[in-house]
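Q: For a teaching session next week I want to show students how multiple molecules come together into a single three-dimensional assembly. I've collected the sequence lines for a complex. Could you give me the predicted structure tokens for the whole thing so I can convert them for display?
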Amino acid sequence: VQRQQSAALSRELKKLNNADIAHLLNMLPADKRRTVWQQLDNHNAGDVLVELNDTIAEDLIEITEPARLGIILGTLDIDELTEIADLLPAPLLNQAVSSLEANERNWVERTLSYPQGTVGDNMSKDSLTLNERHTINQAIELVRSTPELPPQTDKLFVLGKHRQLVGVVPLIDLIRHPGETLIEDCMDKDVVTFAPHDDAEDAGQAFERYDLISAPVVDERHRLVGRLTVESIMDYLREVAENQALAKEGLRAGTDLFGPILEGARERWPWLMINLCTAFIASRFISIFEDTIQQLVALAALMPIVASVGGNTGNQTAALVIRGLAMEQIQRGNLSYIYRKELIISLLNGVIWGALLGLFAWMLYSNLLLGAVMMAAVTLNLLLAALIGITVPFLLDRLNKDPAMGSSVVLTFATDSMGFFLFLGLATLILV
Amino acid sequence: VQRQQSAALSRELKKLNNADIAHLLNMLPADKRRTVWQQLDNHNAGDVLVELNDTIAEDLIEITEPARLGIILGTLDIDELTEIADLLPAPLLNQAVSSLEANERNWVERTLSYPQGTVGDNMSKDSLTLNERHTINQAIELVRSTPELPPQTDKLFVLGKHRQLVGVVPLIDLIRHPGETLIEDCMDKDVVTFAPHDDAEDAGQAFERYDLISAPVVDERHRLVGRLTVESIMDYLREVAENQALAKEGLRAGTDLFGPILEGARERWPWLMINLCTAFIASRFISIFEDTIQQLVALAALMPIVASVGGNTGNQTAALVIRGLAMEQIQRGNLSYIYRKELIISLLNGVIWGALLGLFAWMLYSNLLLGAVMMAAVTLNLLLAALIGITVPFLLDRLNKDPAMGSSVVLTFATDSMGFFLFLGLATLILV
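A: Of course. Below is the structure for the complete assembly, covering every listed component.
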């Protein structure tokens, strides 16, 4: 039965294209995913591997015997190989690289040396290049004689004597200019270029601003080293956005929703640990005031409101600041304006909503002073939340960390601890 | 002095290109932003307006006298006009539209009728079209005679007798095929097309999967109605990502970091209100057990830990589920697998970390039973957090809402309330 099923599976798989198979594998629990993977013939397996989510690809690479993996890697071109290179075990990667021709091997090794998140890490090797002394007709001949153009080719790169980039020729110009025109007379010399160490997110903004489809990557002497396409940039930006949402909750990039249970449990430990520590410390602020609580037990019921309202407004401020930083709206020069504005907003909202909460507390417990303490504590905690909601993302950004990631832990810790401390402290001073 | 300064400003502005001016305006406080805007000459102002963030553009439109705004709008082409149409006051938009030629007016009116977030809302009007009976030479002639190609033109659209789309011809093929080839013999008939009512995010995934640069938009009879480009899709996806981060904190899309203070305060009221309500209800769960707390005041210090650890792990589960939904990894068919897996993970982590917390509570307060209650409450709250962390995003997605938006409020509300209730309830049963 097992064998019959597997034959039927093979037949079904043959009907799907590789992008669809990858999509299917992304959705399957780990054990089924592995069964399907083993059924794929080696040539398709390579294409599928490149299309898979990184986490899924990593899992399948791990369970594939090295001999088969070697064959599968042999079916990939070098751009595909560098794309999945960081998922491969070192010996296999070395073996795959060493079987390449010298110039390809050089390119792969250089590309792998650029850190993640740089232009160099996202660029591809092949581009159509020509010389400024060529004519349009020769350029057309070049395009015709290239059996498969690099994907998203919208322009040819023009190189000078020392392989330095001197201009570009949009494909459309091959049609528009007379055949005998010299490239140097019609090329576009005002080119947007990138350096391999440029930040890929900044490159993404440039692609958007200048409506680019592809752009040359050049070294410090302006020699062509690679090509960046809108597709690789879109890929990268999507990946960053996804990983950021996970990182905010303390999960590593590409956590596998369908992975093994034990691993899934363990992946959450560092975050659980951090949160237990902060919650534990915040709880110590409460225990300082246990006597006060014993005398006025209503405080125990009201204190989480003070903490939670601070956390919420602080996260609002932080979200605005994080967006402002990402869009380069916030600079050192206008930082004091933002502090002033957010603090005034917090003061306003603290007084208004603090008064409302104070009113509730007064009515519920028939204690006017309790209401006043509530109002004061909410106002102060909102001011603190605004301060931290601006300062923490700004500092993280200055330290070249992702402000979206660490801000909310620090913020919640501060507004919880201080919410408890302010409220119970004021209550101790005024009420008991 | 005022006049001298303004002359100097005008000179400075003339040195910048419009994208840079827009970038500058995005960074200025409201009053300075308005001063600079008033200095711009009308022709540049139109280009700048299109490049600005929506919120900033909206603010500047509001303060510009209608006569000047009319002139500025007159400098825009119709794709630019539709791009900012939803920011304009209705009378001005109508006036701008009525001054267009009939076919352009039709197009603008139709485009504005598509809801936000659809392909129709993001498409542009112009494309290069030809007939299947034309030859490559005629296509080349068409390209040559078009003074300015629509941006990101990588292919020509081939239309049949009734303007229905029958194929596309990549620009590159104009170079590769002999001039006398008939378009119908060389065109690509296997075309990725979109309908105006398609979801723009789905279109974005298709652009990524098939490496598209531009694609035709067709109606139900397959007639060409517009063109979608990778640039408009990237724009849209970035906007969605930004607004999502704000929406998660209850801020409306494009909240103005530099806007007026009162407005900034008021913008946060709905969210403050919701959070005050949930925090207030959670606090009522505590007040049920005030007698218990009075007898064992340590409970007041420990209960926020139970609530917070539940909220944190629930948000982890929700983040994984939201990503899984966005990537179409989660279907009705594998939902029960995900429930099972996440519940087991929660049980495991609940027992392990609950035991650790229980140990702390036991040691701190020399009360073994208190430790046991702590462990049980943490475990139960983690199970509840996993249940809600899966159910809420999944239901929101089924209801065609953004699961990233509402999940965290519901989740925090549940884990707070139930954290308090479980912990204090168990304590009441076992300890007092």
